[in-house]
Amino acid sequence: MNNREWIKQIIEHKDTGKTPYNFMFSPPARRLVESHYKIKSIERELDFPVRMTSPRSIKPLYAPPEKYGEQIQDEFGVIWSTSAIDRGSPIKPCLAEPDLSGYRFPFPDQPCRFDEIGEWCKRQGDSFRIIWIGDLWERATFMRGMENLLMDIKLNPEFVKELLCGISNFILGTMKILFQQVLRFDGVALSDDYGNQKQLVMNPADWRQFVKPLLKEIYGLARANNRVVFHHSCGNIVEIIPDLIEIGLDILHPIQPEAMDIFALKKEFGKDLAFCGGLRTQDLLPRGTPEEIKKEVRMLKDKMGKGGGYILEPGITIQADVPEENIAAMIDEARK
Hints:
Elements: H1 3-11, H2 27-37, H3 42-45, E1 50-53, H4 65-68, E2 71-73, E3 79-81, E4 90-92, H5 117-123, E5 128-134, H6 137-144, H7 146-155, H8 157-181, E6 187-191, H9 204-210, H10 212-224, E7 228-232, H11 241-246, E8 251-253, H12 262-269, E9 274-279, H13 284-287, H14 290-303, E10 310-314, H15 324-335
Helix pairs in contact: 6-7, 7-8, 8-10, 14-15
């Protein structure tokens, strides 16, 4: 059984006797891993079963200041701060008012966005390949500002619908190009945070009115093309997990254990949904000992991995505050 078949069986909730894993690294964490293991290609040389990429953006996920300057504008017109250690922050929305009359959404079919994806897929061998396709609600918060957008839901609902629809069309256009041009990949991933540490950032009824119908269309297009749907949403989103299952989600990420009871999630939704994540990042990884981390990894493999439907991963991309020995303890124990 190769890695691709392994992940497929896990998603189908088959107990393979071993729990798969996936790790994402910020630039400083990636350098620590490369130095520790004396390798250049982490995912390939450590044989990670899941591999991820995305179409190219004029604002890469990690845009170091020494290369891009202190600020950078993305294709939607949002101004970001740059950072040497993380993805930076949106510091100037492109929509000062709830009005799209003078705004033009970017076109998804820019050839440079897809130049390298086909070759990337070929290089991944027998791994399970997932392509990030963008963000919906989260993109709208970048474009308008979170506080403004939340007020717009009540004061300017038609604007919110129009904005989200425009973003959704960009995502759907991206997906159609991928399905036409890139044949060798297994799933699509959407990054769309809906929660804080305690609850959704909006009323669940508003989420169901504004976000859910567009997600259903995005998920539906992926499933119609026989692709797995992977959805990243930080925070406590328990209230809408049944909705995500209803519209066709396959894998929920990153199930932050500081925000939700992940074992209760497994018990309640584990027959209908696969989970990816669950390793504590707010205290354990940066401040725990290597032995504590190994113990936690073993526990997650035993409790969450039982019966399939689980991919071990930290509850967020590994950041610069995690010591080298802790990262190595996590990876080594996961790979056993």
